[in-house]
Amino acid sequence: MKCLIINATFGDGSTGTIVRDIQQNCLRSGIDCKVAYAHSSQPQNEIKGWKIGNLFSNKLHALLSRINGKHGYFSYLTTLRLTKIIDEYQPDIINIHNLHSNFINLGILLNYVAQKDIPLLATLHDCWFFTGGCVHFTNANCDKWLNDCKGCPKKKLDTPAYFKDCAAEILADRHRLFGNIKNLTCVGVSEWITSQARQTVFKNASCLTIHNGIDTTIFQPKTSTLKKDLGLEGKTIILGPASKWLDPINSELLHCVSNALSDNRVLLLFGYNGKNQLNLPNVITYPFTTSKQQLAELYSIADMFANCSREDTLSSINIEAQACGTPLVTYDNTGSKETAHPELSDCVATGDYQTMARIILNAPQKNAGTAAKLHSWVAEHFDKDKNYRQYVQLFNHIAARP
Q1: Would the pLDDT of 165 be above 90?
Q2: What is the CATH number of the domain that holds 87?
């Protein structure tokens, strides 16, 4: 059997890593699996697949989409070249992931798939496939994607459209293009996003959930000198992602926690690349890193991982932190609640910063027993090889359909 996976990236970032891991599981299972991608830091001659598009075509696509309000409607020659590759490769199934990176003409691709009657599996890492162009709608408190997407409140945000609001037209095209595919399957990476997809564009497709996975051999409780190196010995450490904590929507939580922390507690915000240190009591920062080993050490020295994200399909950092033995507190919106251990971690009503602050301020120092239970739970539910073998089974099942 042959499988073609299409994604914006390969081997880099969250979806690029996921696609690489799915491909590796396919190859180990005897499936001939290739990837078509736009960006990768991996050596091209070592990737089993094809790079499509280039910097010029990507930039042109981005410019045109901002002018006319449509993202995923350009890259004509790039996508036609991809269809030629598909003609030569002749896959039994195509699995699409993130396509909103200025490298694919979605209409050309989906019309081609429909005409050739190739089974299509759409993996949903965000909401782009079933909206009028936004990747998430929760923070905007918008439900227009359920009907017609007229009057988009995110016109200048997710995919900036400076002159036109084409969300209604885009959503209508999504319904038509996906509706023309006879053998269509939708996989959500969380139960939450699967339930949303079933209400609209994918209501006539076969829909199921496969949670993303992590490498539990890397993300596990670790011993290191990092706590000493940071001068945090003897302190209770609350770890959180800087991008979420420093979002203006979470300013009340940030100031509530920083002002109430005692001298033996510290809020450590990682992924901060600002030029200036934050002028907040008992708050320190750690720079952005792509090293999984460094992240595992960070998670391991923390006593609690606090993620105040209000919009996440399935937060991998929540999973990684718990795999390293650190209890989680998170808002319960979207797919975040699916990442929390039912007994050892906490979910708080979205926006209830006072309750989240209280949990943080009362967090005890973690112990080895809790750490072991958390890692075991993550290994059972979110191990990458265990979860991505489900794709192998699904590919075989779809290809066998009459």
Answers
A1: no
A2: 3.40.50.2000
Q: Quick one: pLDDT band at residue 108, thresholds 50, 70, 90? A: very high
User: Do residue 149 and residue 259 come from a single domain?
Assistant: no
**Total number of domains constituting the chain:** 2
* 324 and 190 housed in the same domain: no
334 lies in the same domain as 311 = yes
Whether 156 has a pLDDT exceeding 80, the answer reads no
3-state SS string over 256-325?
HHHHHCCCCEEEEEECCCCCCCCCCCCEEEECCCCCHHHHHHHHHHCCEEEECCCCCCCCHHHHHHHHCC
Q: 163 and 241, same structural domain?
A: no
Does residue 305 share a domain with residue 175?
no
> Which range marks the domain in which residue 309 is found?
226-382
Structure tokens, 114: 């429909």
Q: Which of 20, 12, 87, 92 is nearest to 49 (CA)?
A: 20
| Mean pLDDT for the stretch of residues 39-53 | 93
52 close to 103: Cβ distance less than 8 angstroms: yes
CA–CA–CA angle 123, 129, 133 (5° rounding)? 145
Which pTM was predicted?
0.94
Is residue 221 a part of any domain in this protein? no
| Phi (first) and psi of residue 330, to 5 degrees | -150, 160
What's the pLDDT tens digit per position in 116-126?
Answer: 999 999 999 99
User: Is position 244 within any domain?
Assistant: yes
Q: Are residues 103 and 28 in the same domain?
A: yes
- Domain-embedded: residue 219: no
Quick one: DSSP state of residue 156? T
Is the domain of 140 the same as that of 241?
no
Mean pLDDT to the nearest integer, 338-353: 96
Closest CA to 158 of 172, 137, 143: 137
Q: Which residues contact 67 (CB under 8 A, 6 or more apart)?
A: 162, 163
**Mean of pLDDT values over 158-171:** 78
- Looking at the structure, tell me whether residues 28 and 129 fall in a common domain: yes
pLDDT band, residue 164 (cuts 50/70/90): confident
Q: Please compute, for residue 389, the number of CA atoms within 13 A of its CA located in the half-sphere on the CB side.
A: 7
Type of residue at 18:
I
pLDDT of residue 161: 67
The Cα–Cα gap between 5 and 189 comes to 16
